[in-house]
Write a structure and sequence with these properties.
Order of helices and strands: HHHH
Distance between the termini: 48 Å
Helix content: 55-70%
Number of domains: 1
Structural class: mainly alpha
Number of strands: 0
Bound molecules: protoporphyrin IX containing FE
Shape: elongated
C-alpha cells in the first residue's frame, strides 16, 4: 500500500503550502514623524526669535512667545504618538517614544519656568530643547524604513 493511502489525491511532489508574503513595514509613520519634528523645530526657533524681539524692546513679542509656547506643548505632544506608530505599523525602533515623551515634558517645564520668570534657567533649557529637536529631526530624515 502506498504511503499516502488515506489521502490518494496527495502526491509526494505536491507543492508545499505557501507562506503568505511578509508584509512590509508601513512607511507613512516616519513621514508623519518627520513633519512633526520639523514643525516643533520651527516653533522652537520662532521662540528664540520672539524672545530676541522682546528683549530688544518689542513688548508685544512676549505675548506671541507665550502663545507659541502653549502651541508648542500641543504639537510636541503628538511626537510620542507618531513614535508609537513608527514602532507599529512602522516596525521602527522604540527609543523615539521615550525621546518624544522627554522632549514634551521638557517643553512643559520650560513653559512653567517661563511664566515663573526664571530666565537664568529658561534660556539654557531653551537651548537644550533646540538641540534635542534638531537631533530628532536629523535622525528622522536619515532613517530608512526596512524593506
Ligand atoms: C523652547 C521653548 C520655549 C518655550 C515653550 C518658552 C515659553 C515661555 C513662556 C510661556 C514664557 C512666559 C511668557 C509670559 O509671561 O507671558 C516665556 C518667557 C520668556 N522666555 Fe521663553 N520659551 C521658550 C524658549 C525661549 C528661548 C530660547 C529664549 C531665549 C533665548 C526665551 C526667553 C524668554 C524670555 C526672555 C522670557 C520673558 C521672561 C520675563 O518676562 O522676565 N524663551 N517663555
Amino acid at each position: 500500500m502506498p504511503d499516502n493511502a488515506p489521502f490518494p489525491h496527495v502526491t509526494a511532489d505536491a507543492a508545499p503550502a505557501m507562506a503568505p508574503p511578509a508584509r512590509r513595514p508601513a512607511h507613512w509613520p516616519i513621514v508623519l514623524l518627520r513633519a512633526l519634528a520639523v514643525l516643533v523645530l520651527l516653533q522652537v526657533f520662532l521662540q528664540a526669535v520672539l524672545a530676541g524681539g522682546f528683549i530688544t524692546g518689542k513688548v508685544t513679542f512676549l505675548g506671541l512667545h507665550s502663545a507659541n509656547g502653549v502651541f508648542l506643548v500641543l504639537s510636541s505632544m503628538a511626537l510620542p504618538v507618531a513614535a508609537v506608530l513608527l514602532v507599529r505599523p512602522g516596525r521602527g525602533p522604540w527609543w523615539p517614544i521615550v525621546f518624544g515623551v522627554v522632549l514634551w515634558l521638557l517643553i512643559g517645564v520650560q513653559v512653567g519656568i517661563g511664566f515663573a520668570r526664571l530666565v537664568g534657567l529658561h534660556i539654557p533649557i531653551g537651548m537644550a530643547i533646540m538641540a534635542l529637536s534638531a537631533g530628532l529631526t536629523w535622525w528622522a530624515f536619515a532613517y530608512r524604513t526596512k524593506r
